[in-house]
Amino acid sequence: MVKVLNKRSFLLALLILCSLLLPKRAIALKPYTWVSNAGTSVKLYVNGKLVASAPAEMADMIYSSNEKLQKLFERNNKGLYFKINKLEEDVFVISSKNGKDIFAVTPDIAEYHNSTPQLLVGIWLSNVYEALYGLHDTAINKDYVTVTWYGGPKWEGNKTASGEIFYNWKLTAASNDLPFNSIVKLHNPKNNKSIIVRINDRCAKSGIIDVSRLAAELLGITRRGVAKLRMEVLHLPE
After folding, report:
1. Where is the RlpA-like protein double-psi beta-barrel domain (predicted)?
2. How far apart are CA 122 and CA 126, in angstroms?
């Protein structure tokens, strides 16, 4: 009996040791959403993170976005990324990679948040990426990197290396070291501002991240033009 117990104990200890030594793999869970209606405001959560909100009179927009996200997550929960599109002057939308509009940011909603439509759409998109990729410390690597920005009339409307069109108001970045559609979080330790960008372009040299003007504004680096920021690669495309 003692020998049997010792054998079982040995096998159990061996299994535990193997589980500790084997590389950990992230568990792919289906994203979930819900809406909180708190009377004066309506809030949309993804994976427990607040990603967007609006005054109660605009509740229909939040509920519509929630339904669209749920349908999107039902079809696909791997390699999700989004794009910012401009419908008209000062009206921006966050769309899925297949072109389905999810969120709309109008001047009224931006005013409610004491922001501008261009800045708010970037914040909401970054929130969505944070909810999908950044809440469980699954960063592939964490390091400091030199970050610059590019934009202005010279770049507006040009084709990027990935084939997408560059616009100053998109939340994108260029890198020679990461594949297209990598999701990267950048944190500015000087002002504690963070933003999450998608790689869709190449830049002049390796070892840097070159972000769009919108990303630079949200990070607070437009005036200086260059900064040493903390980088976390949250997702690499398969």
Report:
1. 148-230
2. 6
| Alpha carbons 227 and 119: distance in angstroms, whole number | 20
Q: pLDDT digits over 35-84, tens only?
A: 999 788 999 999 999 999 999 999 999 999 999 999 888 876 667 899 99
The contacts of residue 18 (CB under 8 Å, 6+ apart) are none
| Among candidate residues 190, 183, 199, the one with its CA nearest the CA of residue 223 | 190
Integer Cα distance of 131 and 31 in angstroms: 9
pTM score of the predicted model: 0.83
The tokens for 193 are 């501002």
Q: For residue 50, what are the β-bridge partners?
A: 45
Q: Six-digit token pair at 185?
A: 């979080």
Structural domains in the chain, sorted by start: 33-134 (no CATH), 141-235 (2.40.40.10)
Residue entry with tokens 């372009």: 201
